[in-house]
Amino acid sequence: MKRLTILLPLLLAAPAQAEEIGECRFSRETLTFAGSRVEQAECLLRKIELLAVRKPQPLPKVIRHLMEREDGPSAAQKAAALAAFPEPYRTFAAEWANTPLSRTEEGLPALYFVIHDTSTPFYANEPFPKRLNQDLTVNDFTPYMDGTFAREPVAHIFLNRVGQIWAGHDFQEGWRATKLESRVVGPRARGRMVHIETVQPRRFLPGATSRGQTYGPKPGFTREQYRMLAALYVYASARAGVWLIPAQHNTVDAGIPDAHDDPQNFELKQFAKELEKLVGKPR
Predict the structure, then answer these.
(1) Distance from C-alpha of 130 to C-alpha of 138, rounded to nearest angstrom
(2) Distance (Å, rounded) from C-alpha 177 to C-alpha 38?
(3) SS percent in the chain: helix, strand, coil, step 5
(4) Which of 71, 91, 105 is nearest to 241 (CA)?
(5) How far apart are the C-alpha atoms of 211 and 260, rounded to whole Å?
(6) Cα separation of 159 and 146, whole Å?
(7) What is the pLDDT of residues 18-71, one digit of tens each?
């Protein structure tokens, strides 16, 4: 009995193992994925192939370098990002440039820069438009702002195929746009991630009838979209005061049932090339 008396306080004092969610092991307690910043980026930037098959891929040197830093973008890098934006978003972004990003209800700052694709317009079994990147219907922001998909815009930023940007919400506003945030963790997650929707249409895979079995065009993203994604990443990181951890919708939700498969055809090397133009190549 004496031995049990000694062990009982030790057992009671032992901390319970924190719950981890999904393949990248998101902690419900800390609202952070597992591992170092580099390890988190490696998991969250895995290659997403058809039907949400995920495969490891090398982390570009520039992203690895930024994940190893403890600071954020310089004033010159922030200014370069702002200068890259098209109007009218450039003026909007400049007005909010010194405002911090969102925080959770517990005060944790935004930490993740999540890349999505809209998966719309949806063409079912019809072919994609011949001049896809310049097509007015494809590039129209109206469906994302008029209640077609939701009562409010589903992400902070919408980026079309010619590089135009529309802000659904400023980055200071906490928002949720993944199943991990909305259906698993709940309101506590609001404000931990910022969300970028890139316009990319979809159509059914041959013989498919489910929206879970679709594919986008190749290349999936245009040069203008990669350029603006890089500028948005630098700009948002500057407002955060730290280099945000880049992620993708599917890898954030990986391991959660019915996870989305976006962004399809996202070329990490192309994103890194545009990022180097703004922040320089790592030495």
Answers:
(1) 11
(2) 23
(3) 35, 15, 50
(4) 71
(5) 10
(6) 16
(7) 689 999 999 999 999 999 999 999 999 999 999 999 999 999 999 999 999 999
**Cβ atoms of 180 and 256 closer than 8 Å:** yes
Peptide bond into 60 cis (omega under 30): no
Are the C-beta atoms of 185 and 112 separated by less than 8 Å? no
pTM above 0.85, yes or no: yes
| Packing angle, helices 75-84 and 223-240, rounded to 10 | 140
Please state, in angstroms and rounded to a whole number, the distance separating the CA atoms of residues 64 and 198.
Answer: 23
Residue 165 three-state SS: strand
As a residue count, the chain comes to 283
* Cα–Cα distance list, 174 to 110, 169, 187, 203 (Å): 8, 9, 10, 32
Residue type at 265? Answer: N
CB atoms within 10 A of CB 67: 19
pLDDT exceeds cutoff 60 at 9 = no
Pairing of strands 193-198, 112-117: parallel
Report whether 75 contacts 57 (CB < 8 A).
Answer: no
Gap between the Cα atoms of 117 and 149, Å rounded: 14
Tokens linked to 171: 């980055």
